[in-house]
Write a structure and sequence with these properties.
The protein is mainly alpha-helical and 138 residues long. The protein contains 4 helices and no strands. The longest helix has 40 residues.
């Protein structure tokens, strides 16, 4: 079997994705899952847009309501952080980590591609001597 650039890239990408999956899932160390989740949340929060609107009474009421909602959301986040701290101390993290599922699916797809690649290479090599025999007969 040839060691082409495609084969090398497929193996390297599979290995890198497997290592990322180990990091993201927290199988080796639970702290890595928290780091990954916090990085994803930071990235999601840093991508945003702001627009300015001329102030009116309605805008003022809306701003006050929004400020109260943010305060409530902050309190909810504080309570959730305390719950997470308690759950991680007990050894249970109740949040769903979708990136782990996505990376697991990508790793599965890459492994299927690697397996198909080796199967097709084996079939091609097995067929090669038969083609050479036919050429000798002709």
């Amino acid at each position: 079997m040839k060691d082409s650039a495609y084969h090398s890239m497929l193996r390297i990408s599979t290995l890198c994705l497997a290592l990322l999956l180990l990091f993201d899932s927290g199988l080796l160390n639970p702290v890595t899952a928290d780091i990954s989740k916090n990085a994803q949340l930071y990235l999601a929060n840093s991508i945003g847009m702001q627009a300015s609107v001329t102030p009116t009474d309605l805008n003022g009421y809306t701003a006050q309501l929004t400020q109260r909602e943010r305060l409530l959301a902050q309190r909810e986040n504080d309570v959730a952080a305390r719950e997470i701290k308690v759950s991680t101390e007990n050894g249970f993290a109740g949040s769903t980590n979708y990136s782990t599922y996505i990376m697991s699916a990508l790793l599965f797809i890459l492994l299927v591609l690697v397996l198909m690649n080796y199967i097709l290479d084996y079939m091609r090599i097995r067929k090669q001597p038969m083609l050479n025999d036919y050429e000798k007969m002709a």
